Automatic annotation (TrEMBL):
It comes from the Bacteria. GO terms for molecular function: DNA-binding transcription factor activity. This is MarR family transcriptional regulator. PROSITE patterns: HTH_MARR_2 (PS50995). It comes from Prauserella cavernicola. InterPro entries: HTH_MarR-typ, MarR/SlyA-like, WH-like_DNA-bd_sf, WH_DNA-bd_sf. Signal peptide: none annotated. It holds the Pfam family MarR_2.
């Protein structure tokens, strides 16, 4: 038997979906206008800069981004043409390759990050109280834990 969403749950769910779509679109437009990077470019660069050495195996990067390998491959090819990332052979695995942050990629994210974080602060966190940020953190942690448990 289907457990339909009640009116409150449906309002929350649809509100979340609409907010996520609009926020993602707005972040993408602002990032593109401010830095020439797409939100996808920025996501790749963030994942690389979060590493002790700014590189990841392509498969690990695809998993971290929740992207299909073909999508990642096409996107990395475009980023590589722009000099933001490079591919490096993996000495342990002849079939594997690392995606490596280039100096140009580092400069691009260093230039883009301040305006991007200011946009996130303006559109999200400046609207929330400390308690609401804590609630948002709790919600995202619980939903992500459920997603991990049912993967």
């Amino acid at each position: 038997m289907t457990r339909w969403l009640d009116d409150t749950e449906q309002r929350a769910w649809r509100g979340y979906l609409d907010m996520n779509a609009e926020l993602t679109a707005r972040l993408h437009r602002r990032l593109q206008a401010d830095s020439g990077l797409s939100l996808a470019d920025f996501d790749v660069l963030v994942k690389l800069t979060d590493q002790p050495q700014p590189r990841l195996r392509a498969g690990e990067l695809a998993e971290a981004l929740q992207w299909e390998k073909s999508r990642l491959s096409h996107h990395l090819a475009r980023m590589q043409k722009r000099g933001l990332v490079a591919r490096q052979d993996c000495p342990d695995d002849g079939r594997g390759a690392f995606v490596v942050l280039t100096d140009q990629g580092r400069a691009a994210i260093d230039q883009a990050a301040p305006a991007h974080v200011e946009t996130v602060r303006d559109l999200v966190f400046d609207q929330l109280t400390t308690e609401e940020v804590a609630a948002l953190t709790s919600i995202t942690d619980r939903v992500r834990a459920r997603l991990d448990a049912t993967a």
